[in-house]
Design goal:
The complex is a heterodimer of chains A (about 200) and B (about 280).
Chain A: H1 4-10, H2 13-28, H3 33-44, H4 55-66, H5 71-83, H6 87-104, H7 111-119, H8 123-129, H9 132-137, H10 140-153, H11 163-166, H12 169-184, H13 191-204
Helix pairs in contact in A: 2-3, 2-4, 3-4, 4-6, 5-6, 6-8, 7-8, 10-12, 12-13
Chain B: E1 3-5, H1 15-24, E2 26-32, H2 43-54, H3 56-62, E3 67-72, H4 87-95, E4 100-107, H5 113-129, E5 133-136, H6 142-156, E6 163-165, H7 173-179, E7 182-186, H8 195-205, E8 210-213, H9 225-235, H10 240-256
Helix pairs in contact in B: 4-5, 8-9, 9-10
The chains are: A mainly alpha (about 200), B alpha/beta (about 280).
Chain lengths: ~200, ~280
């Protein structure tokens, strides 16, 4: 999550004022976020932060953090924004899960969002879903499936959080089977398969 | 020839269509929310449909180098089903989205009181959100329906330049021209309008405020009709600039009034590479 300072520096005066007001409105009434969340990009601009992520995405995460909610309630509010969000809004919710977990006691209440995103065929959503929150919260089966899906749809596993800690023998078997299937079909094997096998090997031995 | 198809239902089309459209010069489309052939029975299915118009379909289009925007509304046909009225309550959420460049398709199908109410309520929503409105005119009783649509638009107080009246023909073109609204023509294989008649209308009435679309959907239709009109215009003696005006600058001018049209980062040649929609497990 970009620090408040990085975002504030990226905004002009009007954008800063809009965001401060929007945060105050979300803090006073969590229902207000439904109209403010989609408006963030028009209010804060189409720019990107030095991190490469959109300014509007960071602003949306600030709105999530401004909600006077925690735990299950916060999970439900985030799911509602995700469920009715366009792709950029959904990405903001997905990337906001980790800060919400650290600062607002989200706990496992964000997992339905991660599972939904991992079922899609949109590589941007899949990549964002396989972030630090998923690495911290998904069980082993779901985490392995997430990694394999990334390999399958071409999301680089370098962008999958937690792989060095969570790659295990079962994931290595799944990756190796995938490689065999590719070779049997006369197709090339994605280099990420090798990376998974290596990481799993380093952990196992 | 660069083409902006201002009305096409890509949800119902295949990736082959996207490839052929790209090859023919289509670089941007607007997909209006309409009905899907099979009537829907709950607002939830509309929410999924709207989500698709704002998420999955733009993603699919981007993989073929085509920029995708949409319009959102409860269409006149389904406005008659009381089970779908709740869709009007969903609109404030969806009209707030970046990818929504107009309220539409609104208007009349059978000119019922329910259609009347939904039409007027959604023109109000267009005013509230500062969005243009895309007005569908009925296939049956078209002249009376178009006249009545223009009356409702006038009563709404929406400026005529924020309104596009669609699916016009020889009998409805003049009243819309006089109204100050934009004029939309849907060029179809065997109904609505064809290339030859379209060129004749452009010769007679000029290219100002004239917009051509394929309105391709799940029925017999052709997503390349915009390109075919361009070719027919050139053959009839129109210049390249006239074609560019009708097939690009006019539709861009209409939808740009939303302030949400994004074509700069939408020239997606850079990301247009493999042109396959990736399949997940």
């Amino acid at each position: 999550m970009p620090s408040d300072r990085i975002l504030d520096e990226a905004l002009d005066a009007a954008g800063r004022a809009w965001l401060a007001d929007a945060e105050a409105r979300c803090a006073a009434d969590p229902d207000a976020v439904a109209r403010l969340f989609p408006a963030a990009r028009r209010a804060c601009g189409r720019g990107t932060l030095p991190t490469g992520r959109p300014v509007a995405e960071a602003a949306r995460i600030r709105l999530l953090l401004a909600l006077p909610l925690r735990g299950e309630e916060l999970g439900r509010a985030a799911f509602d924004l995700y469920r009715h969000g366009d792709t950029a809004e959904r990405l903001a919710v997905l990337r906001g899960l980790d800060p919400l977990d650290h600062h607002r006691a989200l706990g496992e209440a964000g997992l339905p969002i991660v599972r939904d995103a991992l079922r899609t065929n949109d590589t941007r959503l899949i990549e964002a879903a396989a972030g630090p929150y998923a690495a911290a919260r998904l069980d082993d089966d779901a985490y392995r499936q997430a990694v394999l899906k990334c390999v399958f749809v071409g999301v680089p596993v370098t962008s999958v959080a937690g792989l060095a800690d969570r790659a295990d023998g079962e994931l290595a078997r799944m990756a190796a089977d995938h490689a065999r299937e590719r070779r049997a079909a006369g197709r090339d094997v994605p280099p990420d398969v090798e990376r998974i096998l290596r990481l799993a090997g380093e952990r196992e031995f | 020839m660069r083409i902006f198809d201002p009305h096409i239902h890509m949800t119902s089309r295949t990736t082959d269509d996207y490839e052929r459209m790209r090859d023919a010069g289509v670089r941007a489309v607007v997909e209006p929310a309409f009905w899907l052939g099979q009537p829907r029975t709950s607002p939830d299915t509309f929410a999924d449909y709207f989500d698709s118009l704002l998420g999955w379909e733009p993603y699919r289009a981007s993989q073929f180098g085509i920029r995708h925007h949409c319009t959102i509304a409860l269409n006149p046909k389904e406005a008659n089903d009381p089970r779908c009225r709740g869709v009007l309550d969903l609109l404030p959420r969806y009209l707030a989205k970046d990818g929504v460049v107009a309220v539409g398709e609104v208007g009349y199908d059978s000119m019922t009181p329910d259609e009347d109410e939904a039409f007027r309520a959604q023109l109000e929503a267009a005013k509230e959100f500062g969005l243009p409105a895309l007005v569908h005119t009925p296939h049956r009783d078209k002249v009376a329906g178009t006249r009545r649509s223009l009356d409702v638009v006038k009563e709404s107080g929406l400026p005529p330049e924020h309104v596009l009246i669609d699916h016009l023909n020889e009998l409805t073109v003049e009243m819309v021209l006089e109204s100050g609204c934009w004029l939309g023509f849907s060029v179809y294989p065997d109904t609505k309008m064809d290339e030859r008649r379209m060129v004749a209308l452009l010769q007679k009435y000029g290219t100002d405020r004239m917009v051509v679309n394929s309105a391709a959907d799940w029925g017999r239709s052709d997503p390349l009709k915009t390109a075919k009109v361009g070719v027919a215009m050139l053959e009839a003696g129109f210049g390249e600039d006239d074609v560019d005006r009708v097939l690009w600058r006019n539709p861009v001018g209409f939808y740009a009034q939303s302030g949400r049209l994004e074509l700069s980062e939408g020239e997606p040649d850079a990301e247009y590479a493999g042109n396959t929609v990736r399949r997940g497990g």
